[in-house]
Amino acid sequence: MGAGIVGLCTAYALLERGVDVRVYEQGVPGSGQSGGRGRILRHAHADPRLISATRQSRDLYDRWGAALGLEMVSRDGAVAIGPSVEASLPVLQEAGVAAYRIEADELARCQPLLARYDGPAVLDERGGSIRTTAVIESLVGALGDRLVDDEVLTVRPVAGEVEVRSGGTTNRYDRVAVCAGRGTSHLARTVGLALPVQDGAHVRLTFAVRGPAPARLATLQDSSGEFGETGVYAAAVPGNTEYAVGLSETTRARDDASLPDPAELADLAGRASAYVERALPGLDPAPVDVRHCWVTTLPWGEDGMGVWAREGIFFPAGHNLWKQAPALGTRLAAALAGETLHPDLAPESRLGSD
Q1: Could you count the other beta carbons within 10 Å of the beta carbon of residue 348?
Q2: What architecture is domain 1-74+127-196+298-354?
Q3: Which residues form the FAD dependent oxidoreductase domain (predicted)?
Q4: Do the domains spanning 1-74+127-196+298-354 and 78-125+198-297 agree at the CATH topology level?
Q5: pLDDT tens readout for residues 58-82
Q6: Can you give the pTM of this predicted structure?
Q7: Which pLDDT score is estimated for 239?
Q8: How many Cβ atoms are within 10 Å of 243's Cβ, its own excluded?
Q9: Cα(329)–Cα(61) distance, rounded to whole angstroms?
Q10: pLDDT-based confidence at 33, cuts 50/70/90?
């Protein structure tokens, strides 16, 4: 249940297996934590297992895109700058990722919006901007009337099946995956599971490209501090006419999911705009769009993820899941079809650990 990117990828992977599926979603598909017009696909992670999973996701995005008739991830590459990239590069190359050190001139060719930068930089050739809106629309289209507009109130195991009570129906299924974003941990509590998820909020701004759209526009991760921030990420929208920029920081929520200081979101937005003025002269510094969204992180890492299971009900949780969704969805689909859950997804394996 849940028609964000993880729920949709899980459902599509089940359809590929010939398994009947139903997806519950009370809002607009892809409008929760999956919302926004572009996300980064990058292979760089501290955990080699996550690098391998990302490679699988990249291949699935290509295969599914070919089947559905669209480019799901751009071919423009992913650029990372800052001292940390030199430590991550050998790990990427050992994992078989096509990544290498680039100098200032090549950096300017694949990332033409960036101010002059002469420090360490790495290009991940198979990285790129995920075409989020098109991906959601195509997966929703593949589901057809299997997508149900309704809110799920409870899930529980009953006599070897899983009962799902929604606003208008009560149904039973062989197995269920709860892919409800911030609502996943709430539903997990109804079956006695306490997911160690920390809620927070995030802001991402989109800026117009000055002049003609560049033919190539790689995504960007900036941990350098050269331009006043050490945790910046950015991705292009289709056509490379706009660029979405955000800081990696989030404002942490209280246990009741309220924000202690709502002004923190305004501060994050202001810092992102100031960064654009300093670092990305190829952008008009006045944002043309803003995206506020919830994030859910696990204690073992910013990219940490895991799946909790209880009597045929699976509860995936984590952060930055767009780049992991096809691989995660395929592994969840296997478990829903009756296979053993992939061992990397067990919470005790701490997948994505820093």
Answers
A1: 7
A2: 3-Layer(bba) Sandwich (3.50)
A3: 2-334
A4: no
A5: 999 999 999 999 999 999 999 999 9
A6: 0.94
A7: 94
A8: 25
A9: 12
A10: confident
Give the model confidence (pLDDT) of 177-199 as tens digits.
Answer: 999 988 999 999 999 999 999 99
Distance between CA atoms of residues 243 and 309, nearest Å: 38
Q: Give the C-alpha separation, 280 to 307, whole Å.
A: 38
**Which tokens sit at 308?**
């909790």
Q: Is the pLDDT of residue 250 over 90?
A: no
Classify 78-125+198-297 by CATH class.
Answer: alpha beta
The position carrying tokens 């995030």 is 202
Structure tokens at 266: 């305004």
Query: Hey, where are the domains in the chain?
Result: 1-74+127-196+298-354, 78-125+198-297
